[in-house]
Amino acid sequence: MSDLLKRIAKISGPKGLITGADVRQRPADWMGQTQCNALAIVRPASTQELSQIMKICHALGQPVVAAGGLTGLVQGTSASADEIVISFERMAGIESIDPVGRTITVQTGAPMQKVQEAAEKQGLMFAVDLGARGSATIGGNIATNAGGNQVIRYGMMREHVLGVEVVLADGTVVSSMNTLLKNNTGYDLKQLFIGSEGTLGLVTRAVLRLAPRPKSDNTAMVAVSDFAALTDLFRHVSDNLGGSLTSFEVMWKEHYELVAVESGRHTPPLDAGEAFYVIIEVTGNDADIDTELFTRVLEQAIEAELISDAAIASSRSQRDAIWNIREDIEALGMALMPAAIFDISLPIRKMEVYVDRLRSSVHEAWGDEARLIIFGHLGDGNLHVVVSARPWSDEARQQAEKMVYEPLADIGGAVSAEHGIGLEKRDYLHLSRSKEEMALMRSLKTTLDPKSILNPGKIFAA
Ligand SMILES: Cc1cc2nc3c(=O)[nH]c(=O)nc-3n(C[C@H](O)[C@H](O)[C@H](O)COP(=O)(O)OP(=O)(O)OC[C@H]3O[C@@H](n4cnc5c(N)ncnc54)[C@H](O)[C@@H]3O)c2cc1C
Predict the structure, then answer these.
(1) 289-348 per-position pLDDT tens digit
(2) Best residue for ligand 1 mutational test, from 43, 71, 87, 138 (most atoms within 8 Å of Cβ)
(3) How far apart are alpha carbons 235 and 389 in whole angstroms?
(4) What are the pLDDT digits (tens) for 176-210?
(5) Strands 84-87 and 64-67
(6) In the chain, what are the domain boundaries?
(7) pTM of the predicted model, to two decimals?
(8) Is there a common fold for 216-329 and 337-436?
């Protein structure tokens, strides 16, 4: 064992350090398809331990890569053989809940679902929710400014973080565990770390906002025959559901057909053949009134011919069956991999033309063998795009990246809506950010991490 690792072992103890062949036993991604090749995995048990470890790493210029649940999809946790992975799995506790102030204080290795369940026990809700909830950690959610299925109503992670504790590159602990909703005392330092993908600091603890837990929910899957009807439907439900719209998730035809029908893994709630399938969900406080309003608003949409078919969930299992189609990433993986997966933002009104052009580019390049799958949080202007080209190669991936990213610059889109930049989108960041913005980002990085030891090479080239 090297001197560096011996010094770390003295601080972390045997439970806190994984080395040699044991590192290779660990996965490097959430599906377990690649192995971890890092120099070591360090698993601190407290902020103080991590601070001491970072003092050593800083003195020696040792690069480290923070890792949560490994569900990020942009190679943000990818670590080379000379880098140390900092895993937060031994810092996964719920420290306290304040049901009156509606806050929860957690260690950042806590999985999202654990936080959601702790809030539920107090009749409250942690309102950020996404498909990888069982594995994704609060630290990863903060570092990626995660979005998810309820952004349209509750906002992204940034809106739910009140305070953070961070270990800086040199081991300094900045404890900014604010619990107040209003606190305008100088710079809002936590914002530096939210969405910074482990490149500016290691987030060890957080104070999160909780919301009142809704007492009712109503969910439907509806079919829509064209894009104009889709945008009219979005306006109709947004305007008429009295602020209770929580999700407006759209699957383009090809997505619904593949997952709901072809995969054989679901009972399709609606016949295939329409252009779009939408999950509409509302939450509220009075089951009778909410259900009546929801049904009325959908009936109006049917009368106005915005909806051509609808399935309204009348039980928890029917609701889950609808969401299981949207969240069945495994079905997509089995049918489409290898493929390039994208997470982009663009103005809703530009989506139809953008997607038509993309479809033409994909089919021009690879013919009918290629598959283009589109789905996402349309209400947030956020689409997930999968390009499955055949034959697959690195060149095909790069070609797909150019097709997806380059047109975004002219229409005010963003190359990442919620997954971040990591390694995967680094070469395309300039399409969404000006030279001046990039220069300011670099200068923040240099100020906070002058030796570039925190997740080097992610977001920017090292
Ligand atoms: C099935 C599935 C569905 C998904 N759906 C959504 C969705 O709807 N919305 C969405 O936004 N994302 C979604 N994601 C992506 C992913 O779940 C989120 O990005 C999540 O926030 C990552 O959390 P994690 O703990 O897995 O982070 P990781 O993947 O482990 O890490 C992500 C980044 O955060 C950094 N990091 C991790 N922990 C810390 C820490 N404590 N301090 C500093 N940096 C840290 C890492 O270095 C890395 O750069 C989905 C992923 C999957 C697999």
Answers:
(1) 999 999 999 999 999 999 999 999 999 999 999 999 999 999 999 999 999 999 999 999
(2) 71
(3) 35
(4) 999 999 999 999 999 999 999 999 999 999 999 99
(5) parallel
(6) 3-87, 94-212, 216-329, 337-436
(7) 0.96
(8) yes
Looking up tokens 């997740």, which residue turns up? 455
Q: Which atom in ligand 1 lies closest to the alpha carbon of residue 193? A: 43
Name all residues whose Cβ lies below 6 A of ligand 1: 30, 65-73, 76-77, 88, 108, 130-132, 136-137, 139-141, 143-144, 146-148, 197-198, 202-203, 329, 418-419, 422, 455, 458
Phi/psi of residue 194, nearest 5 degrees? -75, 120
Report the pLDDT value the prediction gives residue 14, as an integer from 0 to 100.
93
CATH of domain 216-329: 3.30.70.2190
Is the domain defined by 3-87 classed in CATH 3.30.43.10? yes
User: Do residues 274 and 227 lie in contact, with contact meaning Cβ atoms separated by under 8 Å?
Assistant: no
**Gap between the Cα atoms of 289 and 363, Å rounded:** 48
- The three-class DSSP label of residue 86 is strand
pLDDT digits (tens, 9 = 90+) for 25-68: 999 998 888 999 999 999 999 999 999 999 999 999 999 999 99
Which fold would CATH assign to domain 337-436? Alpha-Beta Plaits (3.30.70)
The residue contributing the CA closest to ligand 1 atom 44 is 198
